[in-house]
Amino acid sequence: MESFKAYIIPTLTVNNAAAALEFYKNAFGAIELMKNIGDDGDIVAEIMIEGAKVVVADEAPSHGNLGPDKQSSISVRIGLMVADPDAIAERAIAAGIKVVYPVDDQDYGYRLGHFIDPFGHHWEIGRPL
Q: What is the residue-level pLDDT of the chain in tens, covering all 129 positions?
């Protein structure tokens, strides 16, 4: 059997996948790898952000999948580790991401900032120091 390394691909549930895809392209330079549009118009797409794969999917309430904008709290933050977090953060801010705290050197060994995208997902954009 061929060797296989496990990896995680997060799925971001959103209330408008078409708009989210455009936002992630503008904010992070995401590249669309695959997009499936269902008979009901709902989208599931795979994107790549600087080599990291992410799935973006429309909400599916019948399956318990709701975007964070429909919930009172979040349980996951997306850590986007990139070579130049300052440049990516500036691009995301220009695209409309909300700053919780800007990219800066943190005491715990990262240059990192915390942001919330228009769909309610929390992003920590940074790199190890």
A: 578 787 788 999 999 999 999 999 999 999 999 999 999 999 999 999 999 999 999 998 888 888 888 887 777 889 999 999 999 999 999 999 999 999 999 999 999 999 999 999 999 999 999
One-letter identity of residue 109: G
| The CATH classification of domain 11-59+76-128, taken from the options 3.40.50.2300, 3.10.180.10, 3.30.70.3040, 3.30.450.20 | 3.10.180.10
Give the global pTM: 0.86
Buried b / exposed e across 117-126, counting CB within 10 Å, b at 16+? bbbbbbbbbb
